[in-house]
Amino acid sequence: MKTFFRIICIGLLVVLFSEFSFAKEFNFRKTNWGMSIAQVKSSEPPAKWEGDGNRLLYKTNVIGKDVIIAYYFVDNQLVRAEYVLVDNHTNLNDFIGDYTDFEEILIKKYGKPKRDEQVWRNDLFKEKHSDWGMAISVGHLMYYSSWETQDTEIDILLMGENYIVKCVVEYRSKNLKAKEKKAREKKALDVF
After folding, report:
1. What is the rounded CA–CA span in Å between residue 31 and residue 106?
2. For the chain, how many structural domains are there in total?
């Protein structure tokens, strides 16, 4: 009876160990770098997809914010993905709150950022914190944080130009970065 019990226990341990050791962590949402367009579409809930052969987009809500989720492909391989904030605010300082909300979630998931910066290109609004949203919208101030995992580079950026504010959380494959760069260069060369 002891032998039978020992065999059952060892069998359960083997099953549990194999479940944990083969559990795959995703790179972005429920996707991994290199997945095809069809695989990415099947990883998401049914959505109204837009895009072309190198990009898939759909609008959704993440942490209470309206975003576009964008997937980028080279040769039908997923190389990069983004959350692009599409919320609009009358008070431009609310964009700083959006950035902070995204950053807090990323800190909870990935820990302290490798880089966490506020970059002032023009000090006009620097002394009046209530105008920092305006400073962002005209390109005077930019917020930036970055993280790194084994396979992925993650950046969050809050910036603006011509009174338009953009907040983006971007995930990039480390291994496929050169492939994306080469495709971008080829596209640029084709224009000239």
Report:
1. 17
2. 1
Give the span between the Cα atoms of 143 and 121, in whole angstroms: 11
**Count of other CB atoms within 10 angstroms of residue 117:** 10
Find residue 59's DSSP bridge partners. 68
The pLDDT tens digits of the residues spanning 19-67 come to 343 456 999 999 999 999 999 999 998 889 999 889 999 999 999 999 9
> What count of other Cβ atoms lies within 10 Å of the Cβ of residue 4?
8
User: What's phi and psi for 47, nearest 5 deg?
Assistant: -145, 160
**pTM for the full predicted model:** 0.84
In this predicted structure, the answer to whether residue 111 has a pLDDT above a threshold of 80 is yes
Cα 67 from chain centre = 11
Report how far residue 46's alpha carbon sits from residue 60's, in angstroms, rounded to the nearest whole number: 11
Contacts of 1 (CB under 8 A, 6+ apart): none
Q: Give the tokens for residue 103.
A: 């950053």
DSSP 3-state of 187: helix
Give the domain extent around 166: 2-191
Q: In which residue are the tokens 């971008």 written?
A: 184
Q: 3-class SS at 6?
A: helix
Task: Identify the H or E element spanning 97.
Answer: helix 94-110
Phi, psi of 136 (to 5 degrees): -65, -45
Q: Residue type for 14, please?
A: V
- Three-state DSSP at 179 gives helix
